[in-house]
Design a protein that fits this description.
The protein is α/β, with parallel strands linked by helices and 239 residues long. The protein has one domain: NAD(P)-binding Rossmann-like Domain (Rossmann fold), CATH 3.40.50. The protein is 38% helix and 15% strand. It is built from seven helices and seven strands; from the N terminus they run βαβαβαβαβαβααβ. Strands 3-2-1-4-5-6-7 form a seven-stranded parallel sheet, sandwiched between helices. Helix 1 crosses helix 7. The radius of gyration is 18 Å and the shape is globular. Bound molecules: NADP nicotinamide-adenine-dinucleotide phosphate (NAP). NADP nicotinamide-adenine-dinucleotide phosphate (NAP) binds next to helix 1.
Length: 239
Amino acid sequence: MTDPLTTADSAPCVLITGGAQRLGLHCAQRLVEDGYRVMITCRHLRPQWLSAPLPGIEVIEADFSTVAGVQALIDRLDARQIRLRALIHNASAWMADDTCGEAFQQMFAVHMQAPYLLNQAARRWFVPDQPADIIHMTDYVAQRGARHIAYAATKAGLESLTLSFAAALAPQIKVNSIAPSLILFNEDDDAAYRAKALAKSALGIEPGPEVVYQAVRYLLDNPYVTGSCLELNGGRNLR
Ligand SMILES: NC(=O)c1ccc[n+]([C@@H]2O[C@H](COP(=O)([O-])OP(=O)(O)OC[C@H]3O[C@@H](n4cnc5c(N)ncnc54)[C@H](OP(=O)(O)O)[C@@H]3O)[C@@H](O)[C@H]2O)c1
């Protein structure tokens, strides 16, 4: 079987890491609806895609737990001579703090190391003199700290990468972050957790993934924003 990633493509695409579910998948599907070519990465192909492939979305397996895993993705994209319109770093790990360093290591690898390596490689993937964006999905807690120290710290590291890469890649590539607080509950969040989470923001709603897509589109469409963090938190900072 031919590897679809070994042939060069013409139309630039949007690459979303960790895009197989929830916010990443919603953005991928909305971008397809709006006429973009889209690729997503995931660690595991979903069994349901065998009977119902994702329309218009190419799926690439990639695991960012190690440098070798990130490099394998970079090599595949180089071999394909990929041309990018945008790179959205959406992949994220959530682990409770521990005392052995494993959680910190894993979240560092996904939230900071993988974007750091991919952004350096991405310089050669964007099309000269065409709109080009890198978007980092961070978190409300990145700028405020949180009970989950390693998670907040590694998301804060990603916010820092936004600033450094925005300076380094200007004027060709805009680099921004989106810092959400509650967007979408997990299925197993119980009623008490949901009520407590909703009460943290002034607007008090679970907005759903479309607000993330609206933020992504704002950053893609606006030519004068780089090195910024778009807060998406329903007024959580007001409480
Ligand atoms: N949902 C919210 O309310 C909320 C709030 C604040 C911030 N955010 C941020 O918004 C983004 C999307 O949120 P979400 O809730 O849709 O995320 P999610 O459901 O947790 O999905 C994140 C994806 O990251 C991928 N991933 C995890 N570890 C990985 C690794 N080692 N290598 C490669 N990929 C890995 C997973 O891919 P596989 O499933 O294929 O393993 C997963 O699908 C995340 O960056 C998150 O931190 C979300």
